[in-house]
Amino acid sequence: MARQLRSGYTTGSCASAAAMAAAVFLFHNRNDCKKGKKGLPKQVSVCLGNGAMADFCPEYGKALEGMAGTNDWCRVKKDAGDDPDVTDGVWVYARVLPILEERFEELCHQGAGYRMKEYPKLYLNGGPGIGIAERAGLSCPVGYYAINPVPRRAILAAVETVRRDMAYEGKLEIQIAIPGGIHLAEKTFNPRLGIRGGLSILGTTGIVEPMSEQALLETIRLDIRMKAVAREPVLLLTPGNYGETFLKQELGIPLGEAVKCSNFIGDSVDFAAEEGWEKLLLAGHIGKLIKVAGGVKNTHSRYGDHRMETMERLAREVWKKMPKEQKKEMVFEKTGEEREDLTEAEMKELFVQIGKANTTEEAVGWLQKAGLAEAVMNQVAIRIKEHLSQWTEGRLKAEICVFSSAHGIVGKTERAEEFLDLWKGSV
Q1: pLDDT along the chain (427 residues), means of 10
Q2: Would strands 235-238 and 279-285 be described as parallel, antiparallel, or unpaired?
């Protein structure tokens, strides 16, 4: 029997644990907190993005590895489990500093970190090895440290727990660092995405799932087979956590009901056809599914990208085929001018913006401003449906729902809602 692969923790989870340890270390060495002095715990427990608790063994009172500085940092070593992660084994550092009100306000107005209204006494900052977002369309504002929303909240919550426990009323600055992150980032997609100077602090669930392809494919096939045995009328398929969360929040589908296929969309629809499925509803983020619209079966980045090229090509096709009267109505709605058509210069500029967009979210935004988003995204869905039918030689009737984190459902095929209602009628 094959060994079960071991899960690990994200950089976000490690940063949360290091930050909690740093807060404990700070108060251990201070005499002005209202509660008595406590010893340094061997473990700290933090809440992960999926709501579970996890224990970490921090190291206290360290200097940044390979860098000159003070010995007031705490660190946690990242364990990515059996996932081939470039950050596996790196030390994630944090320190917590008491700051005056003047400094706190200066950071809030001029800094590159984060303050959240739920934690009004805390400011989250980056440090050496943490990248800065330079392009729009990311989960972090331009000019700010690349600490994504879920770990951002988890880090602040971890430090807030300690602050309240120690009854400390002053303001605190939290700093996160990954020495060597600037070099490790070159092995990631950060430079291409527009994140300079280091790594991102990532994570949605807090857990790194191992990505052995064969093991994952066997798991996907088994999940599809079990749902077939249960005689569900429609197979729900989604690439991953974003799609599953979208199905729950926007379409009322409980977590765990859809098969998560990761990057293996082509293999998964083949499995579905082999297991006798006739109807399938694929729901996913535009960033993944635009690749499928371009004919890509495996959406992992090592098999190519071409997302923006595909988006630009389909936008050009939709515009070219659009009836003149529809174009005229669209132009009037957007500009208030009676024109037969947009000028060539205007359209050229739009297509160039789409082709150069940093993310698909940004490209969808450009399409919405031009009034083309619905038509283009529906065409994306239609193209995906055509590929799935071709890959399964017509054995599988597939409907598609494409969503965007910022804009919700942006495209779907004609019978997508019918398939969704059919599935809901069976539960």
Answers
A1: 68 96 92 62 92 94 86 93 79 97 96 96 97 84 94 97 95 97 88 86 76 72 86 92 83 86 95 95 94 93 83 92 78 63 72 91 90 93 97 96 91 95 79
A2: parallel
- 169-200 as b/e, with b when 16 or more CB fall inside 10 Å? eebbbbbbbbbbbbebbeebebeebbbebbbb
Contacts with 8 (C-beta within 8 Å, 6 or more apart), sequence order = 78, 79, 80, 81, 82, 83, 85, 88, 207, 208, 210
Tokens 């940093």 correspond to 358
CA angle 273, 278, 280 (to 5 degrees): 85
- Per-residue CA distances from 32 to 27, 36, 94, 101, 173 (Å): 8, 10, 22, 17, 17
Query: Residue 179 in contact with residue 65, Cβ under 8 Å?
Result: yes
Q: CA 262, CA 210: separation in Å to the nearest integer?
A: 12
DSSP E strands, 313-368: none
Give, to the nearest 10 degrees, the angle between helix 286-293 and helix 373-391. Answer: 60
Residue with tokens 């950050």: 87
Give yes or no for a contact between 28 and 230, defined as CB atoms under 8 angstroms apart.
no
Contact 136, 199 (CB under 8 A): no
